[in-house]
Amino acid sequence: MGFMNQVTGNLRLMLQRPPRQQYAALCYRMKKKQGQLEVLVATSRDTGRWVIPKGWPMTGKKAYQVAEREAFEEVGVKGKIGKEPLGYYTYRKTLTNGLKVPVQVQVHALEVTECLKSFPEKGSRTLEWVSCEEAANRVNEPELKILFLQFAEKMQPRIPPLPTKAAS
């Protein structure tokens, strides 16, 4: 193997690091009057893309606790967080130095019980309650789109099938 092939191979290995990890909250509520499921989406502070609240691991906090904390800080909601992951999605994060790194995001469902008037990132994002289908249309990440649609299906009330008439 030539010197350049060896250098190229080593460089490729160095750049193929495992994805970095973040934790996110898929914040949801049921509309009281119609009983319809709504999810909360927000714009990111840097690019204005539609996202869900997420953040990096925090010392001494479990994944679901990080997701719960990010939901409070970024979109001002509190509620009941699911301890088990709802699912995962990946995206490429652009760091401050311009380098793009792969990030895996572990998502936890958060049933919103309280929307706060004051929270750390108030005013730096646009927040909207939308249907899971609308959220899937707004976000860029294909796996997050799928998570929204799967969540809608999972949360859909189970309607018993209508009884069939016996043939006469």
Assign an overall shape: globular
Strand percent estimate: 25-35%
Give helix and strand order, one letter per element, not per position. HEEEEHEEEEHH
What structural class do helix, strand and pairing data support?
alpha+beta
Described by strand count, sense and barrel closure, the largest sheet is: 8 strands, mixed
Please state the CA-atom Rg, rounded to the nearest Å.
20 Å
Number of strand segments? 8
* Contiguous helical run count: 4
Mean pLDDT figure: 88
N- and C-termini, Cα separation? 81 Å
Report low-confidence residues grouped into runs of 5 or more: none
How much helicity do the residues have? 25-40%
Your description of this structure?
The relative contact order is 0.20. 28% of the residues lie in helices and 33% in strands. The protein has 168 residues and is of the alpha+beta class. The mean pLDDT is 88. The chain starts with a helix and ends in a 13-residue tail after the last helix. The protein contains 4 helices and 8 strands. Strands 1, 2, 3, 4, 5, 6, 7 and 8 form an 8-stranded mixed β-sheet that branches.
Q: How would you summarize what this structure contains?
A:
By secondary structure, this protein is of the alpha+beta class. Helix content is 28%, strand content 33%. The protein contains four helices and eight strands.
Helix and strand topology:
Blueprint: H1 3-15, E1 20-30, E2 37-43, E3 50-51, E4 54-55, H2 63-75, E5 77-81, E6 87-94, E7 100-115, E8 127-130, H3 132-138, H4 142-155
Helix pairs in contact: 3-4
